[in-house]
Amino acid sequence: MTERAKKVLVFSHRSEVRDSIINAVGRRPAADLGKVTYVEAAGVAEVLTEMDSGEIDLAIFDGEAQPTGGIGLTRQLKHELAGCPPIVVAVRRKDDRWLATWSQADAVLVHPLDPLTAAETVADVLRTQRVPAVNG
């Protein structure tokens, strides 16, 4: 039985930031996890729809997204969404890591993204992810 691909939501208002995140993490962040598929969101409404769907295994948010940043959005979702999937926040400055931690992010990436670190971080979060609920 093959494991279904993990579904990763990538949020940024800038397509080049979404692309850099996807390219850094890659289609298979670790050999033991299988492949991941990506869903991109440019706005908060898209993020909320995807997060409410129950199909997202992990989300990666741009901390500097406009007009709503990924840091504030992470904190909101962690407080409001029962069974919120893990969220990784990508920040521009190392000094902003504390903000991502305050937001209750499960992990933090710092731009410029290092592909090895990004893939390893995402793989670690996916490995520690909760057991998915059974629908039905």
Q: What do you see in this structure?
A:
The protein is of the alpha/beta class. It has helices at residues 15-25, 44-52, 70-80, 97-102, 115-127; strands at 6-11, 36-41, 58-62, 87-91, 107-110. The protein contains 5 helices and 5 strands. It has a 5-stranded parallel sheet with strand order 2-1-3-4-5, sandwiched between helices. β3 (58-62), α3 and β4 form a beta-alpha-beta unit. Residues 130-136 have low confidence and may be disordered.
- Structural class of the helix and strand makeup? alpha/beta
List low-pLDDT spans. Answer: 130-136
Share of residues in helices: 25-40%
Q: Give me the number of helical elements.
A: 5
The average pLDDT score comes to 91
Strand content: 15-25%
Largest sheet: 5 strands, parallel
Distance between the termini: 20 Å
Q: SSE order in H/E notation?
A: EHEHEHEHEH
Q: In one word, what is the shape?
A: globular
Radius of gyration: 14 Å
**Would you report the number of β strands?**
5
Widest sheet: strand ordering: 2-1-3-4-5
Outline of the structure:
This protein has helices spanning 15-25, 44-52, 70-80, 97-102, 115-127, and strands at 6-11, 36-41, 58-62, 87-91, 107-110. It has 136 residues and is an alpha/beta fold.
List its salient traits:
136 residues, five-stranded parallel sheet, 5 strands, globular
Q: How are the elements arranged and paired?
A:
Blueprint (H helix, E strand, L loop, with lengths): L5 E6 L3 H11 L10 E6 L2 H9 L5 E5 L7 H11 L6 E5 L5 H6 L4 E4 L4 H13 L9
Parallel strand pairs: 1-2, 1-3, 3-4, 4-5
Helix pairs in contact: 1-5
